[in-house]
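Read as chain and fold; for instance:
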Amino acid sequence: MAEKDFARLEQFIHRIALSIAQDFGEVRKSLATLSDDVGTLEKRMDTRFDVVEGKLDAFDRRLDREIEARHKLDDRISRVETKLEA
C-alpha cells in the first residue's frame, strides 16, 4: 500500500510541477508582452512630450514678442509725454 501511495504522491507532485512550469511560462510571456507595451508607451509619451515642449517654446517666443512690443510702446509713450511736457 505504501508504494501505491508514493506513486500517487509522485504523480501529484509531477502534476503540480507541470502546472507551475506552465504558469511560469505564461508569466514570462506576459512580462515580455508587457515589456513591449511599455516600450511602445514610452515612445508615445516621448513624442507627446516633444509636442508639448514645442508648444511651450512657441508660447515663450510669443510672450517675448509681446513684452518687446510693450517696451517699444512704453518708449513711444514716454517720448510723446516728454514732448508734451516741453
